[in-house]
Amino acid sequence: MRIGLFGGAFDPFHNGHKAIIEAAIESNLVDYVFVVPSVSSPFKPGNCLNAAPYRYYMTSDAIDEISVRHPGKVYICDVEFYLEGVSFTLKMLELLQSKRYFSAFLEKNDIPFSKEDKISFSLICGSDILFSFDKWFEPKKIVSLAPLMVALRPGDDASLVPKQIEQIEAKYATNVTAFSINSIDISSSFIRNELNFDDVPKAVDDFIKLHDLYDKACLLQLVSDDCYKQFLKYSSRLYFALSRKRLLHSLDVALLAVKYASLYGENTDKALVAGCLHDCAKELPLQKQKEYAKTISGDVFDNVKLIHSPAGKYVAMCEYGVTDENVLNAIIYHTTAHSGMSTLEKIIFLADKLEPSRNYDDLTLPRQLALQDLDVATYVVLSRVKEKFDEYNVEVHKYTLECLDELQRIGKTCNLSDEDDCDVEI
Question: Are 149 and 2 in contact (CB under 8 A)?
């Protein structure tokens, strides 16, 4: 079993990455390609990298597209989510090749394997890596676990590249294999900077549009470096706590909350954390949610669709170390709202209902209102919640009714015609 490992930030995954993967498969130098999105790259400091789950699931969609042409040959690999600290290649290789991870990965992906199979690994990379490989952490140990397998592009220097390969082979006592690709000249940084997505696979383009991804990437520049780093850690931990849909929703809420916070003079760090963790207890076993919710708020939230809110405060405090009461309250009330809401609470409430991947019949009006007046937008969304509950004869929480009454008293309402109606979910 010959396995080629292709790692990278993939922010975003583009057609150049796709060309390398397909050429590696067609070279017959490997039987499988495992694509390994980085979680915390040592080469990308600053608030410039999207959260790992975004990049992982975007790359996964691209691989599904590639697999149509190359079934059973390419797999997404989540090994870096299990690493602590910076995602050094050596640490990734050691964990991936460990019996506890590798066997489970093969079984999870239904990859045929027997004890008699001889396993070898190669590290797939572009030829540009040859000129910076000396700067990697423990390069000699890396090639001892996975020798380099280099993609040669049409524009590569015919004299410099072979010479560099010879130097690496001599210095690290390794063999470097090479394969040719017909690759486009494109980089992820160019795509991000130009917001030009012509050179990404359709699945990636669809993902970017659904999550409004690179429009929001610049929002991370609005939070402190410490909060950005904490956000990346939280989002990676949530990979193990939440399903794909719930986790991506949480990240969408977090970044939309930052946008709202910047508009309304609220603390963007608090908005990012509260948005990221607002559903952190959503997929815990129901009994555990009930236990945590009762600890926080007694029987105030007795509806099973609401208890993840107070349970979320418990988890945010006890497992994620959040101590800020404003953040914790925003998590509690993101489902029901309440009278006397703080600006941050309104922001998280609205971001939860209006984030870009929400696909109700029409959220155009409340999304527009949220950029103009938080109170009116809250009134519109709560009114639709109440209408929906009334339609299904479900009791509306007293906090929701109190908030609606308060907004009506202070004149923060909106008259909606039938065509302006929008559907919402808690």
Answer: no
